[in-house]
Amino acid sequence: MTTKKYLICAALLFSTGAVQAQALYNPATEAKITTLIGKMTLEEKIGMLHANSSFTSTGVKRLGIPEITTSDGPHGVRPEHGRDWTLDEGVDDAGTYLPTGNALAATWNTQLGYAYGSVLGSEANYRGKDIILGPGVNIIRSPLNGRNFEYLSEDPFLSGRMAIGYIKGVQDQGVSACVKHYAANNEETDRGTVDVQMSERALREIYLPAFKAAVTEGHVHSVMGSYNKFRGQYATHNKYLMNDILKGQWGFQGLVMSDWGSVHDTKEALLNGTDLEMGTDLMLMYSSVSQTDAAKGTQDKNIYDRFFLADSALTMVKNGTVPVSVIDEKLRRILRVMYSTKMIDGKRAKGSYNTKAHQLTALKVAEEAIVLLKNENHLLPLKKAAVKSIAVIGQNATRENSMGGGSSQVKAKYEITPLQGLTSLLGKQTTIAYAQGYTIARGQKADQRLIDEAVAAAKSADAAIIFCGWTHGYDYAKWDDNAYDAEGVDKPSLEMPFRQDKLIKAVLKANPKTIIVLMGGGPIDVSEWIDDAPAVIEGWYPGMEGGNALAKVIYGEVNPSGKLPMTFPRKLNDSPAHKLGEFLGTNGIVKYNDDIFVGYRYFDTYKVKPQFAFGHGLSYTTFGYSEMAVTKAGKNVIVKVRVKNNGSRAGAEVVQVYVNQNKSELKRPEKELKSFKKVFLKPGESKMVELSLDEDSFKYFHETRNEWVHEAGRYTILLGAASDDIRGSRSIDL
Ligand code: BGC
């Protein structure tokens, strides 16, 4: 299906039940909220500020205020586990498993961001969830962060644009999105204790813009505070982040919830902007007791009274430490979200679950996310008529990923693995020999027997395809058996695990027509074999339809159009977080000395050659750029360019606009992404593409003046197909 047809079809399907996201603040609702709050006892008020089970918070029955039910997020509605932490059995909770965050970002297609959010919103409605805990927009600072797979990009602008689509998609279904983890949560190892220190400029230019876009343009209803500390104070009750910036400068009217167990102090949480406390460790500690009690029907209700925003908050209000107006303001925010999601005073859409349309969105996102990194001598796409036999190698070819990674796990209705995708696409026409090649297991070394088997299969096939790279964990049935792309752990290094390098080198020798498909949450060290590999694809965690999407790309039924949302360094030490800054820090403090030089901002400015640059991604066709023009239009700058598909296949190009300030008072990156557009072109077709840059596109955050500044002078507008593939530039005085 063409993208245009898909979008029309998706729009029609999603139109049932979709409502325009309600503005959070409107005077009529505020009056109703005042009345409701006026009827509540102090105990009822405090009751609403904390969880009353693993994923719900209390309502006030007598006043018609329901419980709030939250659910992860971010790429599917989480499996059911009732009110405790034990997965329910025999329930209908196997849903749509979407490609993960960085796959979504790799599409560079904001309409797909919306479609993605719509699926989540619709399935959340069907499953009775009020808030979806996503999107995750933390900046991909180091390739080692265990949760990069849930996040979007190293670039704040791309992250923001994709997040806005996602949020509107969710909220137009009448469900609230919850952007997370606010803020500066860029490592997992010590996420609960680490104190992040960074300059104000890095905060404003790199780490906050996606959150700001989510709030001011996406109109997100809720924000999740993160686990870490920021400049000495826990982020979830950080005065500067919450009161001054989020609720002050950005005017956020919705609710701030904690991450699960990120509140540490009652008074700070009350005064510094936490509105709803979820998942506090106390409950985790007592969960086994509560589950036994629950089974006996005598659940220990007191557990939740021990939350920071429970009994101790009540005491503080009663003894005058904190005025009741502080509590009322929190309730107002919670109730606003309830009104705008029609939890009170309205009828929620029913939503739908596991529909063909949802699965089609999962497929479409995967198809557009896959990045063709390298393709020498047009090895790809494979041609069915010419390639009579293939060897499919690697445990990732048969690995299902939906239940891996931690809190973002999804019970997928089905998950098409790469081997299944290839088998169903090829039918009987092509012989497929599968060889496992390596074993995913803790401490696993190379297994010569498996390598020999793979080499033999590759030798006797016309082409070989190795599915390799990362995997979430070893045994997804065990919560703490996470390994690489997972919550609570960072990758120990960038090296391929399970000595996959050895396998790849042997197979490349055995069959020069070997295609490498990397799976997982981003960069991996490919330096041992990259020069010998003719064709390389990045497949991410591509969701329930991933295997089909990969097969279609490999055989040219889909022309790849994904572009990297993060730089792939050649070596870990080339990454700015590791080279200039600290990753994991020392004595509980991590200093972001890499400052604003994150991702390509570093590689370009410091002239470090990456393995694959930000924005890179090849196609089976080629695109020509011509007639570039840059003009002023009031305070905006309009960039126009004609893009032509020079080949004989339909394809899509992502036109990327970067800005360079020729001379600035403070050092600025060589270039910064400020606009992009994905354009779909038939063979031989050309289109005039227009992109607009507003005045903010030229500003930077001036540390000593403590404000965004525009410096008069010359700027260069760079237009390209990747950050390292600039096709034209124009200078302009502004
Ligand atoms: C994660 C959040 C998640 C929450 C609830 C936490 O451990 O950091 O992202 O939403 O758990 O599952």
- Walk across the major sheet and give the strand order: 1-2-3-4-6-9
- Number-wise, the strands total 25
Mean pLDDT figure? 94
Which structural class should the secondary elements be placed in? Answer: alpha/beta
Biggest sheet architecture? 6 strands, mixed
- Radius of gyration from CA coordinates: 25 Å
Ligand set: beta-D-glucopyranose
Give the oligomer, counting copies of the same chain as homo and different chains as hetero: single chain
- Please mark out the parts with pLDDT under 50 across 5 or more consecutive residues, or reply none: none
Helix content: 25-40%
Overall 3D shape? globular
Q: How many helices in DSSP terms?
A: 21
Distance between the amino and carboxyl termini: 44 Å
Give the percentage of residues in beta strands: 15-25%
Q: What attributes characterize this protein structure?
A:
734 residues; six-stranded mixed sheet; globular; binds beta-D-glucopyranose
Q: Could you provide a short overview of the structure?
A:
The protein has 734 residues and is α/β, with parallel strands linked by helices. The protein has 21 helices and 25 strands. The chain starts with a helix and ends with a strand.
